[in-house]
């Protein structure tokens, strides 16, 4: 077991009480709490002298010394330093947890970070736990805090994982026309996106110091410099070009397509926000329904394309092909990481045209060779056209025009060879049922 001691704002709900409400509501992936205690306040005993002098400073809040004892869990680095295959599993389980917290218990965690997501083993299954509910808040049906308390004077969250809007809010809070941003479910989901990128770049074990610094360049900028600079770097992480060109350790290269899909979900949410009709109601909590658990999970697993017309227009294979030298070619071999069935089908389609295009000239006899225009080279090997292929070609053309049918067959072969990719497809990861305590 692990004991946590901290000075908490007196107006904040006790962590064990929040966890109990969530557990009673049927939320999973919660820590097991064994005991707790509140000891003294900063305004009591000899410490009261500091509050008695010239009154209490309104910029500071009274705090109470609290202790809570958890079951011991393991940090993410212990798991992801050896293998990154469970990063998608972490995201799916945390999406379940955040969704149930919000809609079953009406609670927002508000501090998703690398230190607040941990794991343990349930038999052969890795189960992730969301801990540290110090900044959690109760919300109403619209996802807004039910009351403004003293702790709201200070922005909640851990800076490297804090949502873009919240960082901008911190940077602009002293401006005369500033309107505070309300922390909502979409901000916790965004923090989970940052946690995914952070885990992929910083947690795999890398011996070379120079390479380690290169891999961590992006996420290191999320906590260094002014708030404006940090916000700008966070904004870059929503660009697909950034995801395609960022350096990744070899252990997490296969997750690049998966992270790109995560990025495209937020791109879709941003477009939804920009295209909204100002005179009509808009669900800011889920960005018009684009940042719900089910939509995100479906997009990441590629079971279907739930994002209305935005991501469907993007040719993932062509995008990966364009990113030469960024590791995308290796990443594409694992396109089916999170969806085994669909991944295998797409892999077979890509491996089909492995030979150079040649056609059989029926007018000049068997064995006549043709030029392979797909790569600008000649081939001396004749390719036998099966009766099935010839029948398909003839069906689409005039039967008595043999030369025209020959050109159609050759053109189809060359067209397919363009985006051909070869190589194995990795084993897909499937989500297992979680046994909650």
Please tag this protein with its features:
single chain; 437 residues; alpha+beta; Transferase(Phosphotransferase), domain 1; three-stranded antiparallel β-sheet; 10 strands; globular
Fold-level CATH name of the largest domain = Transferase(Phosphotransferase), domain 1
The domain tally reads: 2
Q: Which percent bin holds the helix content?
A: 25-40%
User: What class would the helix/strand composition place it in?
Assistant: alpha+beta
| Shape type | globular
Region (Disordered): 325-385, 418-437
GO molecular function: ATP binding; protein kinase activity
Pfam families: Pkinase_fungal (PF17667)
Protein name: Protein kinase domain-containing protein
Describe this structure in words.
The chain has 437 residues and is of the alpha+beta class. It has 2 domains: 75-348, Orthogonal Bundle (Transferase(Phosphotransferase), domain 1); 371-417, no CATH class. Helix content is 38%, strand content 11%. The protein has 17 helices and 10 strands. It has helices at 15-24, 48-52, 76-80, 87-103, 164-172, 185-202, 209-215, 217-220, 227-236, 240-245, 256-274, 293-301, 316-322, 328-332, 340-351, 387-395, 402-417; strands at residues 2-9, 33-41, 63-70, 74-75, 107-108, 117-122, 125-130, 137-138, 371-372, 377-378. A 3-stranded antiparallel β-sheet has the order 1-3-2, covered by helices on one side. α4 runs antiparallel to α6 (185-202), α11 packs across α12 and α16 (387-395) packs across α17 (402-417). The longest helix is centred in the middle third of the chain and has 19 residues, at 256-274. The protein is globular, with a radius of gyration of 28 Å. It starts with a strand and ends in a 20-residue tail after the last helix. The model is unreliable at 148-152, 303-382 and 396-437 (pLDDT under 50). Residues 1-283 form the Protein kinase domain.
